Structures are given as structure tokens and as C-alpha cells.
Amino acid sequence: MVTKHCRNCGGTLQEFRELAEDEQAYVKAHKPRHTRLGSYYRCAREGCRRYQRLGDHNDGASFPEPEK
Fold it and tell me: Which of 7, 23, 52, 65 is most enclosed, with most CB atoms within 10 A?
């Protein structure tokens, strides 16, 4: 895990983990310019859906709400 600033968590430092396989597929579909998916990480704080590139916290977004 790495520690990064999370925009969804108010800019506080949070632990980020590597993307799971299904998360990688989602990011690849939404970030086609960046094929190196190993550079994207997801915020590990419970309830946060933010993913972002390791070197650029502005290059990221949120995963959609889970279907109920």
C-alpha cells in the first residue's frame, strides 16, 4: 500500500491499494490513454470509491455506486 492524498476524503492522506482485476477492467474502459494499469491505485478507506494514478492525484475518478 502507498499513502496518497485522496480528493474524495477531503484531501487527507489515505492508504491506497492496487486495483483488483474487475477494477482494472473498469479503469481501462474509462482511461483508454493509460494502458499501464499498475499505475492506478484505489483508496482503501472503507466507503471510498476513489481511484487515481500514482504520480498524479488529479488523474482519477470514482467507481460507480454498487448495484443493489
Answer: 52
68 occurs within a structural domain: no
Distance of alpha carbon 18 from its chain centroid, rounded? Answer: 8
pTM of the model: 0.84
Q: How many domains does the chain have?
A: 1
Q: Grid coordinates in use for 5? A: 492524498
**Alpha helices, H only, the chain:** 21-30
Q: Specify whether the CB–CB gap between 19 and 51 falls below 8 A.
A: yes
Domain span at 7: 2-62
